[in-house]
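Section 4.2 – Deliverable D4.2 (structural model, holo form)

The reporting period included a commitment to supply a predicted holo structure for the target in complex with S-adenosylmethionine. Inputs used:
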Amino acid sequence: MLEKETNPNFNKSTGLPRKRFYRARAHSNPLSDAHFPVPVSPSHVEYSLHYPHFFPSSDQMNDSKKIQFADIGCGFGGLLISLSTLFPETLMIGMELRDKVSEYVKERISALRVSNPGQYQNISVVRTNSMKYIPNYLEKGQLTKMFFLFPDPHFKEKNHRRRVISPHLLDEYAYVLGIGGIIYTITDVEELGDWMKSCLESHPMFEPLTEEELEADPVVKLLSCATEEGQKVARNGGQTFQAVFRRIVPTS
Amino acid sequence: MFFNGGLLKYCGSNRCSEKRVTAVAISNDGQYVCFADKFGVVWVVDLRELDESQASANKKAAPLLAHYCSIITSLEFSPDGQFVVSADRDFKIRVTVFPKKPLDGAHEIQSFCLGHTEFVSCLTFICTLEYPQGFLVSGSGDSTVRLWDITSGSLLDTCEVGVKAGHLVSEGSGEGHSTVTDLSTIQDSQLVAVAIQRQVSSVICALQGILILSCNISAQTLYFAKVVSIKGENFIPTSLGSSSSVGLLWMVTGVSNVPGFDYSSLSRVKVISGFNKNSADSVENEPTVLEDNDIPGGMELLKKLQGSVCVEEKVFLAAAEAVKTSMCNLLIKKQYSSEKREFRKRTRNDRKIKQ
Ligand SMILES: C[S@@+](CC[C@H](N)C(=O)[O-])C[C@H]1O[C@@H](n2cnc3c(N)ncnc32)[C@H](O)[C@@H]1O
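Output (structure tokens):
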């Protein structure tokens, strides 16, 4: 599936400005240990390259509009694509570590933009290590939703610190989420589900959503079925474990 | 300095013995000590509890915060004690609210100060009576010293020290790369002393002296003021500190295991004086390097600090060489060839389970 959709002729035939979309951002700095560019700070993220429809030229900055949803470890991008039409005016970014996978998501979005004029303009993807570089992309309190769908489990105890939800990383997620912002997590690995839930419960800046709130939130329904990983789990009849929490002001 | 050694020993005899300490700071009220391990985790110890029950000290270090998989190079408390600031090798400076109960962790990030384009090596604060909360000053491998507002994380000014250093190092003129290795605010002034290493291709050239920058707090600018050169000895300052009372700048250079000599370690202390309180923001008077005899505490103190008062010149040259080499190793990120990188990848023990 990957091969078919990343056919190099695909973009040529649709006349998409593919180079422009892939170009490394001018202000970013290649890191010696990472082989991808990282913006020096959130103000260096080039919105006009990611969302040309909303930012027609790079010098005419539309300061009021910022990325509000982030899908961390977005994989093949299924969630972004579902959310795009549900919240057409909200800018969203997927963060994905694997180069080929993020390239695939880019092409997928380009193709959708072409075949559905005016749509899918609000979603984009970056190749990055979210565990290290979230503060380079996102400002304090900028996000309203953050997603962690079927993250890698890292079963071994000594590798728990590689998990994308951890007590220390939650400090950073609390920083980029505005007050009232929501963090969504789901997994088919029970142990990881327990871990993510207990990390969130122990953190002074998060509280769980109530049953009624979960019921009323249209996004919750997407967690188990919008992504490729979720669909795979569903096909195999697997169980899923979710934890959905709100960013609050810490008491004290 | 002495305390620092004690802390390392404390760690050595206990459960965190496998962790190398990369940075340390003591809270302004002297109650807490924070130290960073090589995994980028900052630990906090309540010193009062440590006094009461020495025996269970090993249980008393609690994780405070972490920079994921980065090495923390410097830790500082803000002058008002409200924040703890941590800098790392991935260009980041994190400002965290220092909580009432630090042993429960410091979860509230106030800001990130982002703008450096190389590792951040050192931090210091400048404050005055009018600005008691102070401004942060940082030094980096990107040849700059920067001035920050930590409340917002905004970059106020950038001072390119590389160019200045380039003019000063005889061998180092032309294209090169400077690294700020340490910073110290001169007490009761708005001056910052800067120690610099300069690299031209792969040769490290020591700057025989320090740069003095001046900060105009109301204009929020940081600019080059002057150079104080250290003549006569092969002295490369690796660490700077200033004493609170008399406007002195203390400089230390040190190595352990000087190659080819049977000294177990070598350190040399020098002092610059002449930073006048009355002209806090200017450097009209000439700061000068004190003769060893004129150092407060004199030869006796030097003997204590250095282990001996006179060091042979050839030992010094060897030590200077060793300092350069270790600086080079410390400051320049390892660059693996692509072949070696592949090998490291293949032999990693943390590989993901194939789906
Ligand atoms: C099991 S997949 C799930 C993908 C997607 N969320 C889904 O539900 O289909 C986990 C993804 O997270 C990515 N990932 C792992 N660690 C990451 C990191 N530190 N930063 C960004 N992405 C990461 C992996 O490359 C992988 O694509």
